[in-house]
Amino acid sequence: MPQQSSRPPRRRRSLLGPVVAGLLIVALIFGSVWAIPAVLAETVAGEPGRPMTVVSVPTEQGKLPGVLDAAASPSENPGADDEVIQDIVSAELAGAPGSASVTVLDTQSGRVRAERAAGEARIPASNQKTLTALTVAEHLDPYSRLATTVETGDDPHRITLVAGGDTLLAPGKGDPDAVNGRAGLEDLAERTASALTERDVQGEVTVSLDTSLFSGPALNPGWATEDVAAGEITAVSPLAMYSHRVPTPDGKDPGPRGERPDNAGEAAAGEFRDRLQDQLGTRATVSAGEHARPEEAVELARVESAPLHEQAAYMLEQSDNSLAETLARVAARAAGEPGSVTGVQRAIRATLEAHSIDMAGADIIDASGMAVSNRVTTGLLAQATRTLLIDPDAGPYGQGLPLGGATGTLTDRFDDPDERAARGLTRAKTGTLNSVVSLSGYVQQAGGEVLVYSVIFNDVQGQTGPARDTVDRTVATLAQG
């Protein structure tokens, strides 16, 4: 895993123009939004894990989509005053379903421009992943990679597959252009077989699995049983194929609707053993072992994941629950905490405290937002989103937020006539549960000013669609301001 962070508190400096411009240049292209039985999650169909690419989306204003004007500033292009922004929020949310909270911030200064019940702690759904992205950015080098290794000790016939936190492994060869499937178990088996052949190892070879990177319960007690049963979240392992999914019969990524294995780590280890047996042929017999990882181990082979900032972008774009939990545990380890449920909770809270983000009323339960016992305020989410924009160390991580009307979980959003003004001019993290609709991100106004916003609707049972349209219409009106 990446080296643990020992960074002292940093002096924050504002690089808003270049950072925000960089955040809005690249995006992942995926398909449409799906509905599921237990939760109305914002998973994306299509071809997950494809390389990032520039997108082109027509916008009403004719601006280059996905790029904020780095030269624009409030003084040169003054936006709407606070009263106008507050009036927009009040008017658009009048008569909205359920209970709503809103915070709109000035991106440059962090000043509150408009709010409604901003101090009320609510269920954030997948907006929780914004806090996870910030925590990962705080503790992990964006360009570092997660290694899956094979090690041995004094007995070369006993080898250990060591999980390093990469849960996007492909069963076959890795794809250098993919995020999900960058590293492949076939490649790891080939390299291991070569190392064993060089050592003239023949006969029986036993392969054990070391998953000690993570500890404690694999399932968060805050997750609903029906959501686990529906496959929306699963037991967290530091080793898995395709983000804790069962590959298709031809070894492809099954996508977000794919089946979950009973034990993701063991499924990946079993696949590795089969591939290693194929590589060794009759020279050796590969079987499962139960030996411990040697204290004085020698590395035989390794494969490495996509850079962590690409994984974080994939997590945000696809709203991948399992990947959020995995990355959060890796970040917790780097922060000096255990890679566990409690370690994640402490790491997220410590990150928010380090950035002086107000946590009044907050209850941090998980990293994915699947726990309905999570509680945060829109003020907290808006501050966290703003930090992803203005902190230069977080820049590479912030680029994964979906682009309105174009990518990820926002592909099919802002589609009505009174919502289209935000297409290509906002990036945001979506959130949807049966009774929750949330959206936290930032939007460029017609004059060039950038506003950070967070909107949470709770208690919208049966009215998810109208609540989502209300949120999108509010952001579109802000874009026109």
Can you describe this structure in just a few lines?
The protein contains twelve helices and ten strands. It is an alpha+beta fold and 481 residues long.
Walkthrough of the structure:
- 29% of the residues lie in helices and 15% in strands.
- It is an alpha+beta fold and 481 residues long.
- The protein has 2 domains: 16-141 and 310-480, Beta-lactamase (3-Layer(aba) Sandwich), CATH 3.40.710; 147-306.
- Helix 2 runs antiparallel to helix 12 (464-480), helix 3 runs parallel beside helix 10 and helix 8 packs across helix 9 (341-354).
- The two termini are 46 Å apart.
- Residues 3-77 have low confidence and may be disordered.
* Helix/strand class: alpha+beta
- Which percent range fits the helix content? 25-40%
| Percentage of residues in strands | 5-15%
Order of helices and strands: HHEEHEEHEHHEEHHHHHEEEH
Cα gyration radius (Å): 23 Å
Q: Can you list the strand order of the major beta sheet?
A: 2-1-10-9-8
- Oligomeric composition of the shown chains: single chain
For the biggest sheet, the summary is: 5 strands, antiparallel
Q: Tell me, what's the shape?
A: elongated
